[in-house]
């Protein structure tokens, strides 16, 4: 089994284990998924499938810790792979339902998509009562504007 197959087997094993009834065990499984994503060695389609599953967990009625681990893994993916907005769009749609610290993860991920469709969602949180949310929203807006200007420069 080569390294790539080993990583995909590891992530599949973590998904199977995620069905465990123990929240602590599910949290550890999500840490394994995050570790695999951090390698930067998965195929783009595998990453997108993983992020879609992670978004489902983050939006679920799971414990705070499990949802935080899922969002942490999505953030990890967003730093090692180019995530299309369509993959994280469910997080954008559910942004208002997240606790402030979890919302900060969502805003960071939206900024990393470099997709202008994320801009109106992110801008809504620039005046949020929680300072961490405002900071992440500001950084995401800056990232989205920078990418738009950079893209315009390339076409000029």
List the defining traits of the structure above:
mainly alpha, 156 residues, globular
Order of helices and strands: HHHHHHHH
Structural class: mainly alpha
Bulk shape:
globular
Distance between the termini: 47 Å
Helix content: over 70%
Number of helices: 8
Record field, number of beta strands: 0
Computed Rg: 16 Å
Our estimate of the beta-strand percent is: under 5%
Identify low-pLDDT runs: none
- Average pLDDT figure: 92
- Biggest β-sheet, characterized? none
3D structure, described in words:
- The chain is mainly alpha-helical.
- It is 74% helix and 0% strand.
- The protein contains eight helices and no strands.
- The chain has helices at 3-17, 23-38, 44-58, 64-80, 85-93, 100-112, 119-123, 131-155.
- Helix 4 (64-80) packs parallel to helix 6.
- The longest helix has 25 residues, at 131-155.
- The radius of gyration is 16 Å and the shape is globular.
- The termini are far apart.
